[in-house]
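Researcher: Here's a chain I'd like modeled. Treat it as a single chain, no partners, no ligands.
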Amino acid sequence: MSQTDVKVSALPDAPDAAGTVPPRQSRGNRLYALDALRVIAALSVLIFHFTGVDAATKANWGVNPKALFPSIFPYTSYGSYGVQLFFIISGFVICLSAWNRTPGQFVQARFLRLFPAYWFSVVVAVVVWRALPDGARKAPSVSDSLTNLTMFQVPLSARHLVGAYWTLWVELTFYLIFLVVLWKGLDYVRVSVFCWLWLLASVLVQEEKFPLLGIFAQPLNTALFVSGIAMYLMYRFGPDLKLWGLLGASWLVMQSDLVQHADHLRHDKGMDRSPYVALALVTVFYLLVLAVALHKLDRIGWKWLSTAGALVYPLYLLHEELGWAMIRTLYGHVGAWATLAITTVSLIVLAWLVHRFVEKPAQRWLRDRLDKESRKRAAAAEA
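Model: Modeled as a single isolated chain. Structure tokens:
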């Protein structure tokens, strides 16, 4: 999942020409509650990959993790739904971060957030695949590895170096769609209309009569993003009947898609999970983000959550292949629980190191270069 800025501008917009009510004044400079939710989502996905899915992890543990972790498997097997929480938060935060920005500023901000840590994780993944292979899978080709640097593996039909990378393409399509809305400037009416149209497109694509829509209006994912945007509009402007209607409609579409998807995983993939437990869990995620939107969690102000939230993106990028390599190396020596603990703590420490010594310096350097080149072009245009 991408790292997203959850700082809030303290300056409200003026009413627009359509008479939209001005946004509510922010009560703080950072939404620490969203940082906390992002940490929960990341750790849920991590623990799912290591202990909650039997087929993919059996080769790494050498035994079904359901037998290794019988006390937690029934719960961690639902950890993959942390991705759905990520997408809800992403709809909220991307709308927040794009408000009052130009398209160029938005693109630059997203590029700086996504690519420095991602490129580093690609290098790590290549090293892991070549130096610490699992023996059960063939390493990705050189061409596929290079293609991964673009983050466009899906349209280029290349193999993901890391399975978790699939969510990045979902995020990128969201950014591309939202960029079209941002081009004309964001306001309450324009964003609301966009949400309704995008949600409708995600329903129509399921009729298989509009195949091209499936690229940008993906079932389930679209409803989650729209839900996050609706909740951000509530946060910024206050809740009203139209936003409650949008949020309710997006939840209804989401639940239909989620239950169908969960049924598919249970019947075709052998994942022993109840679709309605999954729905209840994602609905709890809705309620938690909604509590943020309605300012019910404004009192959460633990500043360490800001640092923890900053580690989510590098942790998400690095945990899967590298974590499995650590599990294969450690398990025979220290046992299952110690291996799980050492691997998890090591990955969190590594995520901090990457954030501190790779991501931040690279972002700073790239930002300075881009700003310098922008000033040069502006000066040349004025000459």
